[in-house]
Design a protein that fits this description.
The chain is of the alpha+beta class. The chain has 30 helices and 34 strands. The strands form eight sheets. Strands 8, 9, 10, 11, 12, 13, 14 and 15 form an eight-stranded mixed β-sheet that branches. It is globular and about 95 Å long.
Length: 984
């Protein structure tokens, strides 16, 4: 019987695709790449001294790569060869991108099939898509393969040429990468801006006004809908300075100075506030404008990672892992794309679902088409959307997905559906109120200037038709001074749409909009108002916000650096290499990143230049489209414009620091000549950062430390961000270092001296052990060596390890006492034993104080509890469910509703991760959009709980295992000519 072999990348796709294709097909998985460039150690002995020895790429002969089958894929290759023997046709169904094309080519090169070969591609794993792909096969795209191979060789050349420089001058084991180094530079440059930032203080005034002239009197309380808040914006027609008017050096911008902007100080602001409360404000101008807002485009890889980070608190790596699972199981389309285009079927499915779920008036008047902004976008791909010609709603798939999968699917579904919905419409009202002032001191810190009129402004947007906001609202990254000059929004779905279905993370994106919800009362020009109150408040300018993973991905995409398949790996690499640390969602560069970035900027400037890196991506796009030759481009990049023949000339001409390396879009020098002509790099200078007043931070082998002009040194705590290391903080660290090694006394039980020290990870106490006598040490070492070898012998020669313990956060290195030190060194403390006789101990760990019982543990609230927690308290903690690190204790109900007549159980409203919900202890149901936790009736809760119970538990998805068999057709494939050496 004839069979057809289909090879896909992931084993998770095998079962679904086999079920769609039927018994005539055998579906196997390559499990990703089966081979890669060899490591130098993997080269055969004959090649280790030849042209492949340095890079596993012959740079002298057309950049031919030397590939080896990955050791963990040899078994897979054997299985594929065995399956191919029984097949009379081969379908290569790897992913439809450059990497997938390269995997397909490698499969051809290794398997060497003698049967017809076809390239089969699809962007969603549904029966319709797979069936269509089977009828529309094509040849292998060798241009795409060339582009992917060029990228791989390029990364090998850059990494293997530049990384050794980092090993010699900064630290062993570091890596430099074509894109990761640029991403690290972005984070470091932002921190440099924060370090150079000088705050400026300024004052403002807010007034509570009312259209009810009798408001606020003891006879008549203020009507809620008659009052509003207005902000001081001008004095005598001169604009009052806000945060945006100051430079990062802490002075007014030249444009603000030229315009006569008033920089209010405290005295003037308080005088103006007092004058407003004693005056009669009058409406000077009212302006109404129509409001219209359009939905965001469907997701690309970049925008999905950004939104998942903002709303779901998922990092790019986790987002792509979850999206991969959704794709492989047929829930969404291919998740690596830079296109915002939807197919005709997808547009029809979205519009149909909008009409069905929200009503015909919510459907956009005509299908929306979104233009892709990225120059090199792969328009053959669709945007990321729910799979199929008819979308499944989140409710329909909830029983088949894990929590993270469901949240991401719902995010994708909402964004896709919203993209074909009608605009949100309404009106924006802006009012300017003039207040006559009695003489009040003011001006830019000049005492003699007075003002006669204060102008206050307020604005608000009333959304009368929510349109796409009923389904989704795009999140935003935090911006500096975003509350200034921002209109308020009433009737908006800011909070609901941003947070709904998006987890707790949505709250952050929605908070600003929710806090500003206000509707301005009706007013006309000339109308008098009542001034209920006015308050002066001081402000300080803020430094540029640090990058988050979401905003860094956005910055890379805006600069056209990297591609959809690389963003997640870039974020992972800069974190794994120790170049950035996470503080909440913010990315904080380490001092190591500063040293690496400085070395690259001063010696490989073009390799970390944003435009140059983007131009390389554009060059790779041209290779993928057949407009550029792979070998010519690599020759130009590595040897420069004169090519290999001119390499010797470049070498001879290079002396001292050279300009940057250049590819076809660059300058006059290739990477080889640049590295060969580097000259001497001052490692001490590269690893030094000036703090000020003669204090220098140095990046040492064991971490960063401070050094002053006299040679004194002080450790820098690992949790201190670079912008927090001011001169004052450095002096404090030097003062603390003076107490380093302070003797606290003698431990009465051992006779050992106890000292307080300042270490890399903070202050700690330790004991000084006596030096063992020479004869005893040698005897112990000899005995250890005879028992278990050299490692044990080395430990024995070093002697026993002294006890150490970190100081509590409430302790100070200068004041810690001997008694406190002995208490710390006594940890871990045995609290007692449980009913089974297992010890319960109190310990201080990396993530704080905790109790341990066998392999189980529970966190303590404070370090002091380590000495005070009792056995009864410990047993009570172990009786409670274990919480995740950082998770708050269980909160009480928001509201108690009474007893459900159907079940007899108490019903309450609780605040959950995805918002408030009703529960009777067994059944949970989320409050609907129009249900307010404060006013919803008990009857409504009983009704929704009854509906949920009637539906029963969600059905688990069942899948049918299908065995695959096949049939035969003609042979048609275009093979890429083999220019690489292979092994295995």
């Amino acid at each position: 019987m004839s069979t057809k072999l289909v090879i896909v990348e992931s084993p998770n796709k095998v079962r679904s695709i086999a079920g769609y294709l039927g018994k005539d097909f055998d579906v196997e998985a390559s499990v990703g790449h089966i081979r890669d460039l060899a490591q130098p150690s993997e080269l055969p002995a004959a090649e280790k001294k030849g042209p492949y020895s340095k890079f596993a790429v012959d740079v002298t002969d057309g950049f031919k790569p030397y590939y080896v089958v990955n050791p963990d894929k040899k078994k897979t290759v054997t299985q594929l060869r065995k399956a191919l023997k029984d097949a009379d046709e081969l379908y290569l169904a790897t992913d439809d991108d450059r990497e997938g094309e390269a995997i397909a080519w490698h499969l051809l090169e290794v398997l060497k099939p003698k049967v017809p070969v076809k390239r089969m591609t699809f962007t969603e794993i549904t029966k319709e898509a797979v069936t269509r792909a089977l009828s529309n096969t094509r040849d292998l795209d060798t241009h795409r393969v060339d582009a992917q191979e060029t990228r791989r060789i390029l990364d090998r050349l850059v990494g293997y040429e530049v990384s050794p420089v980092l090993w010699r001058k900064v630290r062993a084991g570091l890596s430099a990468g074509r894109v990761q180094s640029v991403a690290t530079r972005l984070v470091v440059e932002r921190e440099r801006e924060r370090m150079a930032f000088k705050p400026a203080g300024y004052w403002g005034v807010e007034a509570q006004l009312s259209t009810d002239l009798a408001a606020g009197s003891s006879l008549r309380p203020t009507a809620v809908d008659s009052s509003f808040t207005a902000r001081l914006t001008a004095l005598d027609g001169r604009r009052v300075a806000t945060g945006r008017d100051f430079t990062d050096a802490g002075v007014l911008r030249p444009a603000a100075v030229k315009a006569g902007t008033v920089h209010l100080h405290e005295g003037a602001a308080r005088a103006v506030a007092d004058a407003i409360t004693r005056a009669v404000p009058r409406v000077a101008e009212v302006e109404d404008k129509p409001y219209r807002r359009r939905p965001a485009a469907p997701f690309t890889t970049s925008t999905l990672q950004q939104e998942a980070s903002r709303k779901l608190r998922m990092n790019p790596r986790e987002t792509m892992r979850v999206a991969q699972a959704l794709y492989e199981n047929g829930f969404i389309t291919y998740m690596r794309t830079d296109s915002t285009v939807l197919s005709g079927q997808a547009v029809a499915a979205a519009r149909s679902q909008v009409a069905e779920l929200y009503g015909a008036e919510y459907v956009a008047p005509k299908p929306r088409v979104y233009a892709t902004k990225t120059k090199g976008a792969q328009e053959a791909h669709e945007a990321i959307r729910p799979a199929g010609d008819h979308f499944r709603t989140p409710a329909q798939v909830s029983g088949q997905l894990t929590g993270a999968q469901f949240r991401l699917y719902e995010l994708i579904w909402r964004r896709t559906v919203a993209s074909q919905m009608a605009d949100a419409t309404g009106s924006t009202a802006t009012v300017r109120v003039d207040v006559p002032l009695r003489p009040a001191d003011g001006g830019s810190r000049d005492a003699g200037i007075t003002f006669s009129t204060a102008s206050l402004s307020a604005s608000g947007t009333v959304i009368t038709f929510r349109g796409f906001l009923a389904a989704y609202e795009e999140g935003r990254d935090a911006e500096r001074y975003e509350s200034e000059n921002t209109p308020a929004v009433a009737g908006s779905a800011d909070a609901a749409a941003a947070g709904e279905g998006a987890g707790a993370g949505g709250a952050a994106a929605a908070k600003a909009g929710k806090d500003r919800e206000v509707r301005l009362p009706a007013m006309i020009a000339g109308q008098e108002l009542a001034a209920l109150a006015a308050e002066a408040a001081g402000h300080e300018t803020t430094p540029p916000p640090r990058y988050t993973e979401a905003s860094l991905v956005k910055a890379l995409e805006e600069r056209e650096i990297g591609r959809p398949s690389t963003y997640a790996s870039i974020m992972s690499t800069i974190s794994d290499r120790g170049y950035v640390e996470h503080r909440g969602q913010a990315l904080v560069p380490t001092w190591l990143a500063f040293a690496v970035t400085r070395l690259l900027e001063e010696n490989f400037s073009e390799l970390v230049d944003y435009d140059f890196t983007a131009s390389m991506e554009a060059d790779l796009d041209r290779i993928a489209s057949g407009e550029e030759d792979r070998v010519d481009w690599l020759t130009h990049f590595y040897y420069g414009p004169q090519g290999q023949a001119g390499a010797g000339v470049n070498d001879a001409a290079a002396s001292g620091p050279a300009p940057a390396a250049a590819g076809p879009a660059g300058e006059s020098q290739g990477l080889k000549a640049l590295v060969d002509g580097l000259g001497e790099i001052d490692a001490r200078a590269v690893n030094s950062i000036d703090i000020g007043e003669g204090i220098t931070l140095r990046v040492g082998r064991y971490g960063p430390y401070l050094e002053d002009a006299e040679g004194k040194r002080a450790n820098v705590p690992g949790d201190l961000a670079p912008d927090e290391l001011t001169v004052a903080k450095a002096q404090e660290l030097f003062t603390r270092a003076a107490d380093d090694g302070r003797e606290l006394g003698t431990d009465p039980s051992t006779g050992h001296t106890i000292v307080a020290k300042d270490g890399r990870y903070g202050p700690y106490v330790t004991e000084i052990l006596p030096e063992p006598e020479t004869g005893e040490a040698e005897a112990a070492a000899g005995s250890a060596s005879s028992r278990s070898g050299t490692k044990t012998a080395r430990r024995a020669r070093k002697g026993p390890k002294p006890r150490t313990a970190s100081l509590f956060k409430s302790m100070d290195l200068a004041t810690v006492t001997l008694e406190q030190a002995l208490d710390l060194l006594s940890l871990p403390r045995v609290v007692g034993q449980d009913a089974e006789g297992v010890d319960i101990t109190a310990q201080n760990g990396r993530y704080g104080p905790y109790l341990k019982r066998g392999t189980d543990s529970r966190s303590l609230e404070s370090e002091e509890q380590l000495f005070t927690v009792t056995l009864e308290q410990a047993l009570e903690l172990f009786a409670q469910p274990k919480r995740r690190r950082g998770q708050a204790a269980a909160r009480g109900p928001l509201r108690e509703l009474g007893t459900d007549p159907a079940t007899g159980r108490q019903v309450v409203i609780k605040d959950g991760r995805f918002g408030p919900y009703f529960t009777d202890g067994e059944t949970n149901v989320t409050l609907r959009r129009d249900d307010d936790p404060a006013t919803v009736t008990p009857e409504r809760a009983y009704e929704l709980l009854a509906e949920k119970r009637a539906k029963g538990p969600a059905k688990k998805r069942t899948t049918r295992k299908t065995t695959a068999k096949r049939t035969t057709t003609k042979r048609a494939t275009a093979k890429k000519s083999t220019t690489s050496k292979t092994s295995g």
